[in-house]
């Protein structure tokens, strides 16, 4: 497979993006490229595939990129709404943290519906175009598999936030000039699309590829995440075991959890899918560190942090003493003037601190410094999926399917704990199903914090609304959260209106 993706994706894809992106319900034509002339060669095929990766980057601040660091990005929205990430900036940020959104307020996070939803059809049209190219199957199959995995990833994140969205049939896509108001797909229709695309992708993708490109393991993780959202734990267990069996041959668990995020371990084998950072190309540098880094925090050669994101104190307090995963969490620090900045409990037992971040929690710098950067941007990889998640997911699936605590599940959880410098779960933690599941849930929070998984974890374990209401009480705030309803975001009302009622609002809004 040709590997000049980094050179062309940011020019070709940007051009295509400007041509076909729409912010309304206007039908898009996905046939601007003359299929009589393009693609014909493998280079043409790769250009077509690379163009799609534009929609899966880190973007720039306040843009609609899927993995942007601001409040529109999947990771930030997931962690803020779960209460594992916060900031003193207030406004829309608090609306996420306290789950205060409503169907009518059109928060910025929902504006991403338009740009992301259209990618599903764009991927489908690319697949159909590539299937007509006069090249051998051995050449075409990996590229088509990439696009099917990309389609599955965007469809996963749309389902994660909104539930099943409308899926345009090939017949509808063949006639972009005819406007059709499409209803949401049923769960069964969505299942069929996800399984068809991702099973095909799994079959034809390589186990290893250039950083940022789809692989067999990535496609498996996308389907695994979808199964977990859908509550298909039997199917999820089978898939988790398949990924787990790739240990040593493809993936591994690093000895030190901090190394996974260290700039010196960019190409480590614990990571299943990551975005490669690049300080010299717009939409590719990693800004999550900048969001978390205090402006006066000495962090290698990096400077000018945005003094924003933090780990709330109630989350920090759940860690056990000696947990190595706390090494990137700072309840205090010495700033670049040699002054101590710290948080503390006041005489009323309320946490406060010397700056806007420490007043609410602790500084959380999960990603190590980029020693090639002299500002707040970083070329450190942004990690989306990794092997430790597979281990904990397998333990969860085994327990849910057996409806009992098993030695296998205990051993899997203890692998993650031991790697973090902690002892095995004690007798109480494994004494019954409910207590063990609580321990497993907390292990996921401690292992995977600020990686985008906390929201779905809380939903799956029945804690999403309960935790939001508790936060509101603690901070004397209001919350709109309703059990079940807030597991999904509302569909933007403008979309519902323009669809002439074909689109239904999510239940409860």
TrEMBL record:
<comment type="similarity">
    <text>Belongs to the SusD family.</text>
</comment>
<dbReference type="GO" id="GO:0009279">
    <property type="term" value="C:cell outer membrane"/>
</dbReference>
<feature type="domain" description="RagB/SusD">
    <location>
        <begin position="316"/>
        <end position="509"/>
    </location>
</feature>
<dbReference type="InterPro" id="IPR011990">
    <property type="entry name" value="TPR-like_helical_dom_sf"/>
</dbReference>
<dbReference type="Pfam" id="PF07980">
    <property type="entry name" value="SusD_RagB"/>
</dbReference>
<keyword id="KW-0732">Signal</keyword>
<keyword id="KW-0998">Cell outer membrane</keyword>
<keyword id="KW-0472">Membrane</keyword>
<protein>
    <recommendedName>
        <fullName>RagB/SusD domain-containing protein</fullName>
    </recommendedName>
</protein>
<dbReference type="InterPro" id="IPR012944">
    <property type="entry name" value="SusD_RagB_dom"/>
</dbReference>
